[in-house]
Amino acid sequence: MATMYTETVTTVRHWTDRLFSFTATRNPGFRFISGQFTMIGLPINGRPLLRAYSVCSAHHEDHLEFFSIKVPNGPLTQHLQKIQVGDELLVGAKPTGTLIQQNLKPGKTLYLLSTGTGLAPFVSIAKDPETYDLYDHIVLAHGCREIAELGYGEEVVNTLYNDEFFGELAREKLLYYPTVTREPFRHNGRLTALFEAGRLEADLGLPALNKETDRVMLCGSPAMLSDLQTMLEARGFTEGSHHERGEYVIEKAFVEK
Ligand code: A2P
Questions:
Q1: What pLDDT is stored for residue 252 in this prediction?
Q2: Which one of 28, 65, 200, 248 has the minimum C-beta count within 10 Å?
Q3: Taking a C-beta distance cutoff of 8 angstroms, is the pair 175, 214 a contact?
């Protein structure tokens, strides 16, 4: 069995000077569960240079999609940010990760809490019809510094809301909550502060976050994860894993370089 597939880049979109997304062909043998990540990269000086990336596309889609930061001197992203349609993309054949439904107990509301490129795994989960079978509401919260950084997430959500087949269900169950910390916007502040004030749930017309009915997935920077994990543990939420289901699961938004 292949350990790595060589795919072809099919689209590239630059959202800001720090963020871009791209799609690539998908080998039919590449299987993954919504929310998982895999190693991807480029051949640099004749050797594969790979980093962990969450897959944004849904498992039923015939292409792969990724959302990345650009770091000027980042070992991989200094090259990856220059990719063009037709370029080769290396994709590791063994996806893995903790942000999967089988690590969570059943619940009513699924909170997908992200900052920056931590949005990526939740795009896949929000596109997966199975998520809508399992929950009454799916909250997709995305915290960024600036409004422009919300662009990719806004487009994903608009596409889902306007989808011919899926739109009605998405409009009923998917609650999008973008928030910005460094300029005025309809929602302002860090996710941590918004939960402490009970603001996020109130804005969405939901009861205060509680472990009986709510399940949480976290993906973002180490500081964001640590603060939200502390908040969840203080409210009695336990971390789930493939050994034992819990009320929340957590994963670092990987590529910082
Ligand atoms: P802030 O602007 O107050 O730092 P970054 O681009 O640095 O990864 O940040 C993405 C978003 O995450 C920003 O809105 C940032 O807010 C926010 N953020 C940073 N640290 C935390 C934290 N500990 N908890 C929640 N949000 C955070």
A1: 82
A2: 28
A3: no
pLDDT tens by residue, 92-117 = 999 999 999 999 999 999 999 999 99
What single letter denotes the amino acid at residue 94?
K
Q: Which of 15, 17, 145 to mutate to test the pocket of ligand 1 (most atoms within 8 A of CB)?
A: 145
**Predicted TM-score of the model (pTM):** 0.96
- 8-state DSSP, 246: B
pLDDT beneath 70: ranges in the chain: 1, 255-257
Ligand 1 site residues (CB inside 6 A) read: 115-116, 143-145, 181-182, 190-192, 221, 223-224, 227
Residue 8 backbone phi and psi in degrees, to 5? -120, 130
Q: Are 68 and 80 spatial neighbours (Cβ–Cβ below 8 Å)?
A: yes
Encode pLDDT of 3-13 as tens digits: 999 999 999 99
Atom number in ligand 1 closest to CA 182: 2
